[in-house]
Amino acid sequence: MLHTITLAENNVQWIKEGKEILVNGRMFDIKGSENSGNDKIIFTGLYDDDETLLVNQVKKNQQNDNNTGSRLLAQFFQLLQVTFDNTSIENFTLTLSRNNYFPGNENHPTSQFIAILTPPPQV
């Protein structure tokens, strides 16, 4: 069912220019539009509630990810601010395993090609 709405030109929140707008927090797919004068635009189209739910869910997920990322970043900076006194540095030891891999500590240059071992052809 097509809806017709009239908005002031400066109140239009475009999502996709000429195709989609945001009206009172709901996505509105535009089928047609015309200027009615007095800086007003008449839109004809459909409210897209499925897309509105999807956009709101994406925003919610981004906020959650940002909150988690901010919390981890704050913890990281707090860890960087930890200072050691001289006695704790003398008692601090770091043990490395021979199985650890450290790029750049190789005795030979690395190749840009990866060797692929294949069996010989069968007759």
Tally of alpha and pi helices:
2
Strand content: 25-35%
Order of helices and strands: EEEEEHH
Structural class: alpha+beta
Q: Largest sheet at a glance?
A: 5 strands, antiparallel
Q: What general form does the structure show?
A: flat
Please list the strands of the largest sheet in the order they lie side by side. Answer: 1-5-4-3-2
Low-confidence residue ranges: none
**Helical fraction:** 25-40%
From the N-terminal CA to the C-terminal CA, the straight-line distance is 70 Å
| Chain-averaged pLDDT | 77
Rg over alpha carbons: 30 Å
Structure, described:
The protein is an alpha+beta fold and 123 residues long. 31% of the residues lie in helices and 28% in strands. The protein has two helices and five strands. The protein has helices spanning 49-80, 86-91, and strands at residues 3-8, 13-16, 20-23, 26-37, 40-47. The chain has a five-stranded antiparallel sheet with strand order 1-5-4-3-2. A hairpin with a 2-residue loop joins strand 4 and strand 5 (40-47). The termini are far apart. The mean pLDDT is 77.
Q: Would you summarize the structure shown here?
A:
Helices cover 31% and strands 28% of the residues. It has helices at residues 49-80, 86-91; strands at 3-8, 13-16, 20-23, 26-37, 40-47. Strand 2 and strand 3 form a beta hairpin.
